[in-house]
Fold this sequence. Notes:
mainly alpha; globular
Amino acid sequence: MQKIIRFVKKYWITFCIYLAMVLAYKYIADNKLFGGYLFPPVKEVANSFVENRGTLFLNMIYSFQLLIPAIAIAFSVAILVGTILGMHKKIRGVVYPVIYSISVIPSILMSPFALLIAPDFRSASLFLVVYNTIWATLFATINGIMTIDKVYLDKAKTLELNPIEKMFRVILPAAMPSIMSGFITSLRGSFVVLVYAEMYGAKYGMGFYVKKFAEYGLYSQAWSGFIFMVIVLVIVMQLFEKLKNRVLRWTLN
């Protein structure tokens, strides 16, 4: 009971904001503002959830089949490259400007090249999501390792840890707050490119679902897909926030 009370005290304003958004939508839909087509009645949107729940979850699965491998690849490459650059000043001085100059190119501008060079659309989409996801984690890894307190490294030297033990028991744990912060930022960016890729060429996916019904003028289905996508992405972000808190449970915050 105490947990419920604390939860309500913490989030009651948040719930009020969401309620205000729903009521604002209902007012617009009931009064047929903006032509009355773009904002169908709340009942129609709710019915669309029920009628298309199977299709919604199917498209979610297809989105995750692209998103999960892309995140795994981006995270692995970012940790590997970021660790090398963070630990070696000479290599960092040569390679960092190149990486930085590439990272400022928006992934959307890379999409025509990816579509022409990749063997299929899935590979192109995978590349775009990886490209957009990798940078925040990479730079966070470099900065996290560069700013490690030398006291930790001195203690590791005193304990005579071998390079592997030093890496996994000292360097990476010390840099992990920065790495996880960059990874969460990367994750948010990956959703943007995922939806963009699905809207322009995919046959399945949450972004494809919304775009398809919006083009057909079936806005109740488009809104149900949009709301479903937002709910799924919020849940995914919260799960990764829980993972971050668990990984960083040894920190003060």
